[in-house]
């Protein structure tokens, strides 16, 4: 099947500048009460309204349907900026970009326009119930339609968004044996949001379990079919690339907050040759180390973000080699952003001192967020992906993780 790409070329300087400014404004709003909202552990309904009002939810949708007409580089930078203030909301936005972009990657060409128009007109936020290590959804043929049954854990954005993208195995009918993506409105009969997300971090990512009990699904609700087409499967390096930007953003936020706290500290350690902590050579050494590491990760992220746009623009001309090359590039970013991000968020306390461990300061939020989300899939397997490629030119089998 020939698929055009709704994304062409790469982001201009003016486009990036625009979306950076929008994201920075939203991040500033989120930063005001990020810790308070984290502790309430509620679905981010008001936060998603802020994303809708800013235009960020429509950034990637084609301009021909009323969307922002932006590129992946702009979207990923926006996710990174939000992560500096609130990685939970950034995660929901990142998953929304990935979920809704299945319209362009996986939907049949004759229905893409309709899906995009409805999504843009409603400013929909797309949540998901796709978790590939929890394959428990079955879509059973029932008359002219289907019934969806099963339980999905780790359903990011599902309970707070407008629609849920669900991956299910079809039993019976003309689609028997296919794994399909169905798009269901939030309040569809038979969908129950269990509200059981109670993790160490990413507490506002609306990532609880969803139970589907005899949910009616029409043929028109089916967006597309899971296949091994290289273009359709750019979705996986896309979400992994979003993770890399989230981890970088969290680390940048941790360092910025650490610098703010350190500059406000009076005096210095009694053995220090300096009068203030900000002038202490050991403090400056740690800051220099962190800042340099993050500059390197940022350069790699910017390069990889733009490279992803270049591959996406190929559409149906995307080859397995094209996909493989960006998969490896993204895996490299995932490795370094995970390790540097955790390192910075963990060791930031070395420059801020014992007073910064007070609960009211909330500096732990950065570490809790990145520590939680970086367990999504083991980073050691990303190292293996890179190593197998470098040594043997071997790519991992296409999956929703590789």
TrEMBL record:
<dbReference type="InterPro" id="IPR013107">
    <property type="entry name" value="Acyl-CoA_DH_C"/>
</dbReference>
<feature type="domain" description="Acyl-CoA dehydrogenase C-terminal">
    <location>
        <begin position="242"/>
        <end position="377"/>
    </location>
</feature>
<dbReference type="Pfam" id="PF02771">
    <property type="entry name" value="Acyl-CoA_dh_N"/>
</dbReference>
<dbReference type="Pfam" id="PF08028">
    <property type="entry name" value="Acyl-CoA_dh_2"/>
</dbReference>
<dbReference type="InterPro" id="IPR013786">
    <property type="entry name" value="AcylCoA_DH/ox_N"/>
</dbReference>
<dbReference type="InterPro" id="IPR046373">
    <property type="entry name" value="Acyl-CoA_Oxase/DH_mid-dom_sf"/>
</dbReference>
<dbReference type="InterPro" id="IPR009100">
    <property type="entry name" value="AcylCoA_DH/oxidase_NM_dom_sf"/>
</dbReference>
<protein>
    <submittedName>
        <fullName>Alkylation response protein AidB-like acyl-CoA dehydrogenase</fullName>
    </submittedName>
</protein>
<feature type="domain" description="Acyl-CoA dehydrogenase/oxidase N-terminal">
    <location>
        <begin position="19"/>
        <end position="122"/>
    </location>
</feature>
<dbReference type="InterPro" id="IPR037069">
    <property type="entry name" value="AcylCoA_DH/ox_N_sf"/>
</dbReference>
<keyword id="KW-0560">Oxidoreductase</keyword>
<dbReference type="InterPro" id="IPR036250">
    <property type="entry name" value="AcylCo_DH-like_C"/>
</dbReference>
